[in-house]
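Quick one, probably user error.
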């Protein structure tokens, strides 16, 4: 398999307001610097932090499936579909923008989140009614996969939410000095973000090793070898993982 790690200095960066919210963009918008252009139907991926409370002004979206996952803090959501929702740490929201929706988000001070855009078949999604859904931390399915490993299933089976875009999304917490063996599903590319701690990632079959540090973005393309070994150091390791198909049966938006 191929493992590519992109530390923060290789990711794009941006901000809102006068810097109240700062971002690292592992996958940026067209025309912007980013670690990678896209990962299959993964169109955009950003880590954001608010050093002060700040409200992002109302703005429109169309077509894409936009996932916001709150790591720390609180977000107040409002949209043109008349939804108003407070999201605390561990909450997940999904905007399926369809034919068009406007929304605004207020990030409270010291909030940290990931926003990830998935690209369905836009020719179809542009015609569909926009929807909004969310999961609270209490509604997220949690399993103990191995000793010292806690997995929150966010999107895709066995999670209660499915996207139009074929995808899985998990939040994996590995206790200090523990390890986690994960088998990549067939015909799947993984992308993940290190949100806490440090450790190592090994493709044992091919003798490939990568050190992992906080805010690294990593892309793993599977082949005949599909077993990954994650090893946490003394601080533990937390990663948010997304899996998408190597290929999709529709044309993807051309990014330059």
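Nope, works fine. Designed sequence:
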């Amino acid at each position: 398999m191929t493992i590519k790690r992109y530390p923060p200095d290789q990711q794009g960066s941006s901000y809102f307001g006068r810097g109240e919210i700062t971002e690292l963009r592992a996958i940026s918008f067209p025309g912007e610097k980013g670690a990678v252009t896209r990962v299959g139907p993964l169109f955009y991926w950003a880590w954001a932090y608010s050093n002060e409370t700040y409200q992002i002004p109302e703005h429109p979206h169309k077509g894409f499936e936009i996932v916001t996952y709150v790591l720390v803090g609180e977000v107040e959501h409002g949209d043109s579909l008349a939804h108003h929702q407070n999201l605390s740490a561990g909450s997940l929201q999904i905007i399926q923008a369809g034919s068009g929706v406007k929304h605004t988000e207020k990030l409270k001070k010291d909030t940290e989140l990931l926003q990830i855009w998935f690209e369905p078949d836009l020719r179809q999604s542009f015609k569909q009614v926009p929807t909004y859904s969310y999961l609270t931390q209490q509604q997220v399915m949690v399993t103990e996969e191995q000793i010292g490993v806690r997995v929150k299933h966010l999107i895709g089976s066995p999670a209660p939410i499915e996207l139009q875009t074929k995808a899985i999304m998990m939040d994996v917490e590995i206790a200090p000095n523990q390890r986690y063996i994960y088998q990549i599903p067939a015909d799947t590319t993984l992308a993940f973000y290190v949100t806490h701690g440090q450790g190592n990632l090994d493709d044992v079959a091919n003798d490939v090793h990568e050190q992992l540090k906080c805010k690294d973005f990593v892309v793993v393309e599977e082949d005949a070898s599909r077993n990954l070994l994650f090893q946490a150091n003394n601080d533990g390791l937390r990663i948010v993982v997304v899996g998408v198909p190597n290929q999709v049966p529709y044309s993807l938006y051309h990014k330059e």
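The two ends are 27 Å apart (CA to CA).
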